[in-house]
Amino acid sequence: MRFGSLALSAPAKINLTLEILQRRDDGYHALRSVMVPVALADELAFAPATRFDFTCDPPALTAGNLVVRALAQIGLADAPLAVTLRKRTPVGAGLGGGSSDAATVLRAAMQGELGPVGARDWIADARALGSDVPFFLADGPALIEGTGERVTALGAPPPWWIVLVVPPVHVATGDAYGRLAASRAAAPPPTRPRAESLSIRCGEALQRHDYPGVLATMTNDFEPIVAEIYPQVRAALDALAGAGAARPMLSGSGGSCFALFANEEQARACASAIRTPPGATIAVVPFARGGAWR
Asked: Where on this chain does ATP bind (predicted)?
């Protein structure tokens, strides 16, 4: 390592929009989504060592971890590094924690923090690790299209806050896609031209820091299906609505739910009024401000 020990944060994300479009010939679904990093983050530490070692807290998440896979993707699987991951972002909750961990490794390598790795196609590396990983390379809000590889940065985020409710449920993304496909086979939705996309309008409103405009365009195609299948998700959405949130929404394929607020005072007032569903956890955090958009 060129700079000795290194400590990095890997922020979670929320989806202000998530539109699932047609299924492609390669089996992947096209999508449009406006994603925003939030100030809830895993902690990654790298230190010089005599051989490669990886430690995860909790240990149950060590096997197959995306941090190790990301290092292998860029040829550092056997680098003399002691790598420590402390998970703070709930796992399997639609918040992109594992993808952010992988992207944090790639960004550190891109900046030369992990030693020489040579010229690479970093987007291809990110895409190989997961569809959400390219987004986290943008280090800020972005419009995501294709199957996740088309990333349009949307600039510095507004100083807005979210109240996050994480119910005790794991929603399998593949199952959510399967149920959405079955629903659409029974009742095909109308086509959605890009010019009429809520994600495009939401991204434009976000760039203007237009809070009502963003609220009016927030959408998630998974939400009605996931809320119907998982009563814990329905309870989280209802808890936010009961506390006065204007537009509670599912993040990703869930099960985390959130509400958006224009300032910290409003967010904390909502959080204090929530009747927490059994087993759920609550966090109040701002949009994250990455170093690329200060």
From this structure: 90-100
